[in-house]
Design goal:
This protein has 723 residues and is mainly β. It is 8% helix and 22% strand. It binds 2-acetamido-2-deoxy-beta-D-glucopyranose (12 copies). This is Leucine-rich repeat-containing N-terminal plant-type domain-containing protein.
Length: 723
């Protein structure tokens, strides 16, 4: 750092002679710039390129050579902001966004920047409290977003900032009440307020009605509570109200329809009650209406058909009700995403929906819909995501025939419908070569379907995720299914599947070859997929854990050694079958395994010591088998509870409080006593039901999609059903 500065001084010294005839920049400003204690990577900024700082990159001077703009975004600047910035008293524009600045900004120096109009310090690592010494009367824009500021924002700040138009402090750790004097004043000039992703608490203060120019108000992802202030509905320039993921309550007032330019209304993940405003149809500019995860009730107001600019309508997880087919969707021709899941809607699938030709994603899951899926659904040629799970639809064969023609369909979730029907296996579907040609996810769990695994499944060349758990499917696993090149999630638990665990499982290339698995689409799904527990929400296919669920079936024989080829597998469940023989040593090749459940079989021999090498294994059970010998110790084995091993009289080790195996009589009958429970525990069931969600806050357009937390798989309890 020091020699860098010395270098600067020498250059300055030389430039005094070399450029005497030029209109050089103000010497004080130049010295200030040169004493910036920043490390500037040479490749990203050619500075200083000459002695006249007005000619340097990112610097603008006025006629007399005073520096007025410092515009250095994305230059890799690493360091603290130098106090000498306060010497640039003519500075009006300062943009240092997207650098690596850290530490608190020089609060006292800021007080001399009385000409400052634009301040953008976003996307750095700045800390400390709000720099309320920025007292310029001229300040128009403050962007401190995506830093690490904390503390209160003093309301008094705004009394000096009479020209403030944009105030963006999103994505920091500010606390306390929303600073409101910005708008208490009737001369409120603010157009844009972004307070989202902080820890602001308390109510949204009244006064917004004074801000006749306010277009965008964002304060989502805070701890705000209480109702919306009534006068928000008089800020008639508002185009965007975005307050998701707070604890706001009360109703959405019908006066909201006065906001004639409202384009975005995001109030999801709050505690709003009451109905959708009856005259919402007057909001003809509305594009995004995101009200999911609240306690809203009533039916869809008929006037909503006049919101013809709507592209995204998400109302899932509320208590809406009424006959869905009574609402006329046909005017919503721009609608792309419709999510009405987890409500109490009744009736049949509305035929008016088939006119919404722009639809790409539809979820109507977990309602009380019934009837058949009409062949008219084939009109939705752009549809890529469809979840109808958890309703009372009938005629699976008809549904599959109607849907297979949808060329863009990539996710189809029909779980928990079609109760007790036959698994569709008609020739029309089997021999139609172009049906479901882009289907990647098929969910048909918990339908109590009977029959065999149909041949047409083997034609779905793009299939990655197949979930048929909790049905009554019998017969063996056909080889064609095990040739699907991209399949990485096979859910067949809780059926009547017989035969052996097929050696051909190692034909599932996506579980064998990282290159093939890496081809799994990493783009976001149009709507998230939900697993059976609230934690399981998948926004990308590639977040779904590679898994084979074959538990609670009638599989016999031994576990094939070839299973060791499935190196990318994270979950393997073979519990509750009739498997015998040894646990193959090759299982230790499954180095990514997190869950391994072999409980409730007739496995014998010792637990291979090599399994100690499975360093990600967090849930393991071999309970209720006929295993013998010492339980391996070390590695993850020191973390498993005794219940992982119980029901194997021949096992010994500290964990089962039996230190020696030598004196034990060998078990002879090969059968261990096991509890028999006929009740099926749904929590362990099918993986992808697009079902219940409680309090999930990630929406598809909630601004930034925050990275998904690393998946924590649910603890697998032991098998629960045997036949
Ligand atoms: C430039 O700065 C000097 C010193 O602060 C000042 O005297 C002069 O008036 C400034 N020029 C302009 C155009 O503001
Ligand atoms: C600062 O620069 C970045 C990068 O060019 C730009 O995106 C941003 O809009 C600028 N800030 C302002 C307030 O103009
Ligand atoms: C910033 O510079 C310091 C030394 O001046 C260095 O240790 C650090 O790694 C740099 N940080 C980045 C992100 O480049
Ligand atoms: C610039 O500011 C620093 C720190 O505030 C001060 O010590 C220094 O004297 C100033 N330099 C000039 C040239 O005004
Ligand atoms: C900072 O926020 C302002 C106002 O919202 C915006 O104009 C500017 O582009 C933002 N800066 C960056 C780097 O996004
Ligand atoms: C605030 O700034 C962030 C990034 O700097 C930007 O993503 C966001 O859109 C801005 N908010 C508004 C309302 O412009
Ligand atoms: C709505 O937007 C239009 C077009 O931008 C504008 O002319 C009109 O004044 C706005 N209405 C209100 C109430 O601000
Ligand atoms: C839809 O929005 C556009 C502007 O995006 C507007 O001009 C048009 O009037 C709106 N449609 C209706 C029916 O109001
Ligand atoms: C929809 O808009 C039309 C034309 O503006 C109007 O006549 C009709 O009453 C509106 N319908 C509803 C249900 O509000
Ligand atoms: C759904 O509607 C039924 C019948 O109207 C009612 O009994 C039930 O409580 C409702 N469920 C919810 C979650 O509102
Ligand atoms: C589903 O429909 C059948 C027949 O229409 C009816 O008997 C049954 O109660 C319905 N089930 C549910 C959960 O609504
Ligand atoms: C099921 O749907 C198919 C195709 O739409 C139709 O031909 C058949 O009659 C339906 N079956 C029943 C029982 O309604």
């Amino acid at each position: 750092m020091l020699h860098l500065m010395i270098f600067h001084w020498i250059l300055l010294f030389l430039s005094c002679f070399a450029f005497l005839t030029h209109q050089a920049c103000n010497q004080f400003d130049q010295q200030s710039l040169l004493s910036f204690q920043l490390y500037i990577p040479s490749s990203s900024l050619n500075w200083p390129s000459s002695g006249d700082c007005c000619l340097w990159e990112g610097i603008t001077c006025d006629a007399s050579g005073n520096v007025t703009r410092l515009w250095l975004p994305s230059k890799g600047l690493n360091g603290t902001i130098s106090p000498s910035i306060g010497n640039l008293t003519h500075l009006s524009h300062l943009n240092l966004s997207h650098n690596r600045l850290f530490g608190p900004p020089p609060i006292t120096s800021f007080s001399t920047l009385i000409q400052l109009q634009i301040l953008d310090l976003s996307y750095n690592r700045l800390t400390g409290e709000f720099p309320s010494t920025l007292l310029s009367n001229h300040i128009e824009l403050v962007n401190l977003s995506s830093n690490r500021f904390h503390g209160l924002i003093p309301s008094s700040y705004f009394q000096q900032a009479g020209n403030l138009m944009s105030f963006n402090v999103s994505n920091n750790s500010f606390t306390g009440p929303i600073p409101s004097s910005a708008w208490i004043d009737s001369s409120c000039s603010v157009r844009l307020l972004d307070l989202s992703y902080n820890d602001f608490s308390g109510q949204v203060p009244p006064g917004l009605g004074n801000c006749s120019k306010l277009t965008s108000f964002r304060a989502g992802f805070n701890n705000l509570s209480g109702p919306l202030p009534d006068d928000i509905y008089t800020a008639t320039s508002l185009e965007e109200i975005s307050l998701p993921a707070n604890s706001l309550s009360g109703t959405i007032g019908n006066d909201i329809v006065h906001l004639e330019n409202l384009t975005v209304l995001e109030l999801y993940s709050n505690k709003f009650t009451g109905m959708i405003p009856i005259d919402i149809g007057r909001l003809t500019m509305l594009k995004l209406l995101l009200l999911h995860i609240n306690n809203l009730s009533g039916s869809l107001p008929p006037s909503m058909k006049n919101c013809t600019n709507l592209t995204t309508l998400i109302l899932r997880v509320n208590v809406f009700e009424g006959d869905l087919s009574a609402f006329n969707f046909s005017t919503l021709s721009k609608l792309k995403t419709l999510d009405l899941g987890n409500n109490n809607f009744t009736g049949i699938l509305p035929s008016s929906l088939y006119s919404c030709k722009s639809l790409t994603a539809v979820r109507l899951g977990s309602n009380r819909l019934e009837g058949q899926i009409s062949p008219d659904i084939a009109a939705l040629g752009s549809l890529s995501f469809l979840s109808l799970a958890g309703n009372n639809f009938t005629n699976l064969t008809g549904a599959i025939r109607s849907l297979m023609g949808l060329k863009n369909l990539s996710t189809l979730i029909l779980a928990e419908n079609f109760k007790n029907e036959a698994m569709t296996d008609d020739e029309h579907i089997t021999f139609s070569s172009d049906g479901f040609q882009n289907l990647q996810v098929l969910g048909l769990g918990d339908c109590q379907l009977y029959g065999q695994l149909p041949a047409w499944l083997g034609n779905l060349r793009e299939l990655r995720v197949l979930d048929l758990q909790l049905n009554q499917i019998s017969g063996s696993i056909p080889g064609s299914l095990l040739n699907l090149p991209s399949l990485f999630y096979l859910g067949l638990s809780d059926n009547f599947i017989s035969g052996e665990v097929p050696k051909e499982l190692s034909g599932l290339q996506a579980l064998v070859s990282a290159e093939i698995f890496d081809e799994v689409d990493r783009s976001y799904l149009e709507l998230p997929l939900f697993g059976p527990t609230p934690k399981e929400q998948y926004n990308q296919l590639s977040n779904i854990p590679p898994a084979i669920y074959l538990g609670n079936n009638r599989l016999g024989g031994s576990i094939p050694a070839e299973i060791g080829n499935l190196k990318l597998l994270h979950v393997l469940v073979l519990s509750g079958n009739n498997l015998s023989g040894n646990i193959p040593d090759e299982m230790s090749h499954l180095v990514n395994l997190e869950i391994l459940d072999l409980s409730g079989n007739h496995l014998s021999g010792e637990i291979p010591v090599s399994l100690k090498g499975l360093s990600f294994l967090s849930s393991f059970s071999v309970a209720d088998n006929n295993l013998q010998g010492p339980i391996p110790s070390g590695g993850q084995f020191d973390t498993f509870p005794p219940s992982s091993f119980e029901g194997n009289p021949g096992l010994c080790g500290a964990i089962v409080q039996k230190l020696s195996c030598l004196n034990d009589p060998p078990t002879t009958d090969g059968l261990s006593p096991m509890p028999i429970s006929e009740s099926s525990n749904k929590e362990l069931g099918y993986g992808l039901i697009a079902g219940a969600v409680f309090g999930l806050i990630i929406g598809i357009t909630g601004g930034a999609l925050y990275p998904f937390p690393k998946l924590k798989f649910m603890q697998h309890s032991r098998y629960n059903r045997r036949r």
